[in-house]
Amino acid sequence: MNKEQLIALGLTDEQADKVVAGFGTMVPKTRLDEKINEVRDLKTQLTDRDTQLEELKKVDAEGLQAKITELQKANDDSKIAHEQQLKDVQMASALKLALTGKVHDADLVSGLVDKSKIELNEDGTIKGGLDEQVKSLQEAKSFLFVPETKPSGIKPGGDPAGGNQDKGSDNFGQKVADFAKSTNNLDEARNSYFG
Questions:
Q1: Alpha helices in the chain (DSSP H)
Q2: Is 0.85 topped by the overall pTM?
């Protein structure tokens, strides 16, 4: 309380001066309660921090470091395994593409090939090392490979039965025309007979 508040309560000017001089400016109770609660909170925080520090002192730093090292090694091993798996998939795809159409079973033949001798380009195609192995496999196990077809000498549209091959598609066209004529003649004969 201040001097004016004391005078308002009925004290004289002289009495109010003595009270103020004896006690000074008074702090309201609500403000005092706030400060008391703040001190309690600070004490609780200090106790919590002391407890946390004690817990940290109990932590095994060497054990944590060993665990970190173990996890790093596991991550490195996993990364290496993933890269190898990706490389194996690229190799299998490249082999299958390279062998398709040349062999009866690309999976079977790719299993007979030494993949460590094959080099891949950055785009996943085979750079080298396969042709020599395929050649030796073809000599040793020719039944695995699709026989190469040689041109028969027949022109497209030619007569496969050994007819006139020089005319090519004209010969076939003439035969179709002749057949159509004979069919029309049969139709005319049937119509005239049954008529």
A1: 3-8, 13-23, 29-58, 61-99, 106-112, 131-140, 169-194
A2: no
